[in-house]
What we know:
The chain has two domains: 6-152, no CATH class; 169-362, Heat Shock Protein 90. By secondary structure, the chain is an alpha+beta fold. It is rod-shaped. The protein is 59% helix and 12% strand. The two termini are 68 Å apart. It has a five-stranded mixed sheet with strand order 2-4-5-7-6. Strands 1-3 form a two-stranded antiparallel ribbon. Helix 4 (62-70) runs antiparallel to helix 5 and helix 5 crosses helix 6. 27% of the residues are buried. It contains twelve helices and seven strands.
Amino acid sequence: MKMLTLEQIRSNRNVLFWSLHAAGWAAYGITQYVGALFYEKPASYARVWLVAAVAGFVLSAPMRYIYRRLWGRAPRTMIIGVVATCYVTALALRMVINLSYKEFVATDWQMQTLFELFGGALSTAYLLVCWSVLYFGIKFYESQRQQEQALLKAVALAQEAQLKMLRYQLNPHFLFNTLNAISTLILDNQNRKANHAVTRLSEFLRYTLDQDPMKRVTLRQELDALDLYLGTERLRFGERLHLEYAVEEGALDALVPSLLLQPLLENSLKYAVSAREQGGLVRIEGRTREGLLELSVIDDGPGLREGAPVSERRGVGLRNTRERLAVLYGANYRFAVLNSHPGLRVDMALPLEMAAPAAEGAAQRPAAAPRLSGGARA
């Protein structure tokens, strides 16, 4: 026979009820028997309390189904129902106890009135009231726990929906720019470049669809995905785009939210490269420091006007990234936007989590990968 674990008993309401019900009445019978021994009662008392425990187990079981109907009613109705149920059950139980007492202990006892058959009903009713309080206490606890679990599930679903909204909110802007670039290539009769751009775009979109925004990828995979995104942007900007990577080898296996850097890089390209005829430089840095993964996206664009809020420029990408980190990490992250003279610097610090050794090989990675040494230019 397979034994149930404590957790299985807790999770199965029927098993939990019958286990507690049996344990309670067994404890009642044992305590009554020990009390009889303490007061030097005859050995025949053991039979009385054995019958009492079995009768209590059987007669009080229907109270569960009565209380199910009372649950959720008005407090006054519940109290009246509980008291009435306990008293009627106590009358039945005392009748069994008194008859067994007459049968096994006081065989010469002659009842004078019918009321003697129900003697002690009030004390037994008190016992059943305690049973009822315990029953409703456990039921209330389970109800509260179910509500808490439902609330936690609702919060988790809301967080997941919010993360997806924050991540996918950026895609229309990126698609608009990319499709414009492809359209320009077609008008200039650069069909080969346009076809290559469409291929790179489809690979990047396939990657975004495959990635769950609630899950994390290694920084190496994030940079690989970033290179898919840059595949279309390089065709668009050509020699005007200069890109540097300065990422420590030890940081490449750290876990980050998928597509974390793409909106920051997109903003840098928009304001530091696209807006200037000579183009510009974007630098991505990554390092591990004291249990943190530090990431930076730096450009040599115009930066922020002194005293101007961040929301005045580059608002969508920066704001969404900050909100996404807040949902994922709570207060356990840092996000700062600073002027770097020249340009703008976005610094992030996340709790350091390293990928399991086997995870990287099993994960899907885009084919193209950027060079990661400091000073490498694209």
